[in-house]
């Protein structure tokens, strides 16, 4: 379970860093979006996450309180939704928008922001459930995994 959480943290940070690093260039070069609109488009997913992260956690907690899900199944379901949603939104972002229909990119980024939020009741919650007495050590390991992803994402993507 710890390796799964580390991989999930790595994947989450990798995709987030990828988006933050290369999205403005994609908007400028591929969709021909002006600089001012580029900034607005780039911040969409972060603004969406401000509102949806707490909402996802509330939904997860309510499902556990009502006995619909246990801690393990809740973490697995929410993490699966997170991973699949991020993959779908990035694929849609790559293939659906065009210079004439740049608004489609905004919809893809809204979906990306929402699905990123599912990771909070997913791998973040799972981490604290695994071994509460070692939460400090586990949190440090997660931060290391995330940092390695944030460092490697721009380097690996630049090679492509």
From TrEMBL:
<keyword id="KW-1133">Transmembrane helix</keyword>
<feature type="transmembrane region" description="Helical">
    <location>
        <begin position="103"/>
        <end position="120"/>
    </location>
</feature>
<feature type="transmembrane region" description="Helical">
    <location>
        <begin position="140"/>
        <end position="159"/>
    </location>
</feature>
<dbReference type="InterPro" id="IPR011701">
    <property type="entry name" value="MFS"/>
</dbReference>
<dbReference type="Pfam" id="PF07690">
    <property type="entry name" value="MFS_1"/>
</dbReference>
<keyword id="KW-0812">Transmembrane</keyword>
<dbReference type="InterPro" id="IPR036259">
    <property type="entry name" value="MFS_trans_sf"/>
</dbReference>
<dbReference type="GO" id="GO:0022857">
    <property type="term" value="F:transmembrane transporter activity"/>
</dbReference>
<keyword id="KW-0472">Membrane</keyword>
<protein>
    <recommendedName>
        <fullName>Membrane transporter</fullName>
    </recommendedName>
</protein>
<dbReference type="GO" id="GO:0016020">
    <property type="term" value="C:membrane"/>
</dbReference>
<dbReference type="InterPro" id="IPR050382">
    <property type="entry name" value="MFS_Na/Anion_cotransporter"/>
</dbReference>
<dbReference type="GO" id="GO:0006820">
    <property type="term" value="P:monoatomic anion transport"/>
</dbReference>
<feature type="transmembrane region" description="Helical">
    <location>
        <begin position="77"/>
        <end position="96"/>
    </location>
</feature>
């Amino acid at each position: 379970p710890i390796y799964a959480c580390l991989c999930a943290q790595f994947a989450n940070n990798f995709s987030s860093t990828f988006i933050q690093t290369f999205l403005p260039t994609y908007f400028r070069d591929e969709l021909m979006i002006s600089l001012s609109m580029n900034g607005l488009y780039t911040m969409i997913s972060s603004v969406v996450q401000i509102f949806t992260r707490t909402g996802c956690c509330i939904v997860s907690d309510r499902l556990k309180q009502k006995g619909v899900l246990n801690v393990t199944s809740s973490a697995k379901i929410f993490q699966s939704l997170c991973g699949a949603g991020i993959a779908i939104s990035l694929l849609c972002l790559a293939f659906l928008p065009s210079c004439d229909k740049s608004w489609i990119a905004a919809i893809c980024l809204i979906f990306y922001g929402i699905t990123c939020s599912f990771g909070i009741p997913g791998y973040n919650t799972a981490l604290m459930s695994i071994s509460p007495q070692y939460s400090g050590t586990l949190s440090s390991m997660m931060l290391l995994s995330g940092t390695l992803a944030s460092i490697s994402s721009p380097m690996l993507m630049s090679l492509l």
